Amino acid sequence: MFMPVGTQATVKSLQPRELKEIGSQFILGNTYHLWIRPGDDLIAKAGGLHKFMDWDQAILTDSGGFQVFSLADSRSITEKGVTFKNNIDGSTMFLSPEVAMKIQNNLGADIIMQLDEAVPYFETYDYVKKSTERSARWAQRALEAHKCSKQQALFGIVQGAGFRKLRENSAKDLASLNLPGYAIGGLSVGESKTEMNRVLDFTTQWLPENKPRYLMGVGAPDSLFDSVIRGIDMFDCVLPTRIARKGSLMTRFGRVVITNHKYKDDFSQLDENLDDYASTHFTKAYLHHLFNTNELLAYNLASIHNLRYLLKLMEDMRAAIENDQLLDLKEKVLEEYGYNKANARLF
Amino acid sequence: MFMPVGTQATVKSLQPRELKEIGSQFILGNTYHLWIRPGDDLIAKAGGLHKFMDWDQAILTDSGGFQVFSLADSRSITEKGVTFKNNIDGSTMFLSPEVAMKIQNNLGADIIMQLDEAVPYFETYDYVKKSTERSARWAQRALEAHKCSKQQALFGIVQGAGFRKLRENSAKDLASLNLPGYAIGGLSVGESKTEMNRVLDFTTQWLPENKPRYLMGVGAPDSLFDSVIRGIDMFDCVLPTRIARKGSLMTRFGRVVITNHKYKDDFSQLDENLDDYASTHFTKAYLHHLFNTNELLAYNLASIHNLRYLLKLMEDMRAAIENDQLLDLKEKVLEEYGYNKANARLF
């Protein structure tokens, strides 16, 4: 399954009912952003994130760690946690495994994540080892601090960058906690696709087969196939909505940059293969016009379209798995998308 | 009836199906903007404006004149028409009664407007007289240039600023053309409400009772009542959607500036009186958060809300007219809205 990203208690430009309409059963919320604005206490007062944003399907919140390491300034990390200045008002904040649990308990998502350190992929073995072992200890502390384990499933996050031995140790440490699910972190952060597949190849074997496996931050069609084939069940990514707002549409026959002049008078559907509101009601020429005139409806329609493309792809994958045709589906989809063309425009 | 404004073939931030859901049966499109982008020829190729923007309800297009007089540079007006530089790419363009008809025939709206000169309210009697007489001649030329009078109803526009005699002459000139409807132009352009009511008082009597009367650019609740009472049937205004995007909500109990800090933890509905998606699914605190974090969904929800407020107000007025209770409704609505409070925040 694929989870659209709703960073600030909203999947950008979409109503909750529109998300349901395109088949989204799960969205992701960002703890870091919600902690700062409007604050987890306020969301708790509202009755939790589901109620605050009117989303009656499932939610997963991350731990806030990734944003602390990618957005915040003046970070310092110790065994206890991370001190940093936030990127909104510059005030100093402190995030620890316990704080991340307190915030996520307040937000009330269905799946919550342990705090881990988002280690850059090409750090030294010694640093990654130290960090990964600390993240495993943080998982233990998160479990102990978790106040409502019957309502919220706590996932651990396997780290270890590209080091087989560290990934193995991390997976085994977390598996020993018997958590309801496991994420694989520290991938899709700049390493090659071959490299990511190599890590997945040797990491998933150490994770329990009967627990969901979640690969964080992946949303390109070829990577989704590569990862599902290697045993991954869950994904999230800002890609479909972020490129949508720039005018890039994911279609069956590859990327369509709708702002391109050639679509000015193209009165064909956005994607004849798709059943969403945007694809069935509007032409490429109309969406070109909306982007050309900076109309807000452009972002909404393009986001609906791209998310439906990915959600439908996951539906097709699930059906193919049932029928043992996943490899056939992969070949067909990637061929049509243009992954095999020398000059294909992908993302 | 009230027509939401869809300047560039979209009512800003709203899907056509959302407009239908809130009871909009008619929208207005701006000829000036559509002529420049994407061009009326392109819209004709798309099958007309209804099809281009997927709107299967009615559309009225203006003549483009108002925007030429309010947005364009280097205007020069002669008997033949207006030459100007457009505000998008600065190129020189020429608009005449015949060109305005050609464009509007291409756009294919259900009601189309004659080209007139939008005269400033406080011009001299001599200038207004000259201009109003020319506008009446332009109405005649528009009628002669109209290519599809069975599909598109051409409305004339009464001008004459605040001069009783000029309004009378203008109305009589137009009435002699036996057009399917009449607009009153040159009001709501900076004159006082008392002044506008005075002009309506002496203008409507010269317009046929069996033809619709359209007051252009009016959307404040008190002015809508004042005008309906004086015999006006149709309105359009950017007010509800424009103030929505700034965070101003029109509610039963007056204007709510949702960006105000006091709404941060106000978990009440936007407006308990309204039945639209925004009012029934989201709290003031949530909308405050969306505006506070510059989320695109804010503009959509606030626009749905304000348009539904006005469309519902018109529904209530129609019912009140049927029951001969319009004055009672006016008193109740304006009292609740706060028009009688000394420090009321209106618009």
UniProtKB/TrEMBL annotation, chains A, B:
Catalytic activity entry: 7-aminomethyl-7-carbaguanine + guanosine(34) in tRNA = 7-aminomethyl-7-carbaguanosine(34) in tRNA + guanine
Domain tRNA-guanine(15) transglycosylase-like: 1-337
Pfam (any one): TGT
Keyword terms of this UniProt record: Glycosyltransferase, Queuosine biosynthesis, Transferase, tRNA processing, Zinc
GO cellular component terms attached to this protein's record: cytosol
Entry annotation: catalytic residues: 62, 236
Renumbered residue ranges of the record's region RNA binding: 217-223, 241-245
GO annotation, biological process: tRNA queuosine(34) biosynthetic process
Record: residues binding substrate: 62-66, 116, 159, 186
MF terms in GO: tRNA-guanosine(34) queuine transglycosylase activity
EC number: 2.4.2.29
UniProt pathway annotation: tRNA modification; tRNA-queuosine biosynthesis
Assembly information from the UniProt record: Homodimer. Within each dimer, one monomer is responsible for RNA recognition and catalysis, while the other monomer binds to the replacement base PreQ1.
Protein role: Catalyzes the base-exchange of a guanine (G) residue with the queuine precursor 7-aminomethyl-7-deazaguanine (PreQ1) at position 34 (anticodon wobble position) in tRNAs with GU(N) anticodons (tRNA-Asp, -Asn, -His and -Tyr). Catalysis occurs through a double-displacement mechanism. The nucleophile active site attacks the C1' of nucleotide 34 to detach the guanine base from the RNA, forming a covalent enzyme-RNA intermediate. The proton acceptor active site deprotonates the incoming PreQ1, allowing a nucleophilic attack on the C1' of the ribose to form the product.
Family, similarity comment: Belongs to the queuine tRNA-ribosyltransferase family.
Protein known as: Queuine tRNA-ribosyltransferase
Gene from which the chain derives: tgt
